[in-house]
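Hi V.,

You were right to ask for the full record rather than a summary. Here it is.
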Amino acid sequence: PLQDGKEQTANGTSHKTSLTVPYLNPLVLRKELENILTQEGDIALIKPEFVDEHPIIYWNLLWLMERIESKTHLPELCLPVPSDKEHIDPLSKVKTVHIQCLWDNLSLHTEASGPPMYLLYRETQPTSPLIKALLTDHAQLNKNVIQQIISAIRCNDFATPLKRLANERHKLKSNGVERSHSFYRDILFLALTAIG
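Predicted structure:
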């Protein structure tokens, strides 16, 4: 998801609002944008209503422009019109909009499926072996397994992590724990966290 945090100032006070939209593949974004332009015409891209009518397309376009470091009028569409109506360069408003790409939405994880591997990896290890043994949760993956998966990924071996993860999930399933995370996403997000 993409996340927008807008900071606006009125009467000397500032506040932040937040909006989260799903990330669109650039090819999907292009197709959706072509559909909008076909149905509504080029003028749709300069109307402030575009932000509310097509939020997913708008924020993905804005994110894409940010990534390719291209100047655009798009940030102006989401900001209020100045009361003095003075002509201001729309690109000067860009600094008041913060866009952050989040590669995972934590609200999608249910307790039943357990946390993804990258969150388990981030948790701090207890120092005492006794505490470590007492805190072992049989409803989630063992940290030792996660370390083995990371080691295999560092050696450009993807088959071993898949097999290891499949075996561990099978063990969890026999204990009544069903993990719904995609194998690919679980391993990819772990690699992003552990290796960068």
